[in-house]
């Protein structure tokens, strides 16, 4: 996992991202993310706390790093 990406996400959003922030980082509409959460299709682990959905910034960074690695492998 990229330490710089994790630090960036932590600085910008804090240790966990809410639904709107997660949607922004993933580049999808908040309603689309909501539907994916309902269907269990979110590419990062999410959890409920106090009635809100959250994702840990480390999991988000790990997912984005994996996307980058997959893109580099496909381009080679």
Count of alpha/pi helices: 4
**Beta-strand percentage range:** 5-15%
The whole-angstrom Rg is: 13 Å
Task: Using the 3D structure, state the CATH architecture.
Answer: Orthogonal Bundle
User: What is the straight-line distance between the termini?
Assistant: 21 Å
How much helix is in the residues?
A: 55-70%
Task: Report the CATH topology name.
Answer: Arc Repressor Mutant, subunit A
How many separate structural domains? 1
Describe this entry's structure for a reader:
The protein is of the alpha+beta class and 76 residues long. It has one domain (3-75): Arc Repressor Mutant, subunit A, CATH 1.10.10. It has helices at 3-13, 19-26, 30-39, 57-75; strands at residues 16-18, 47-49, 52-56. Strands 1-3-2 form a three-stranded antiparallel sheet. Helix 1 crosses helix 4 (57-75).
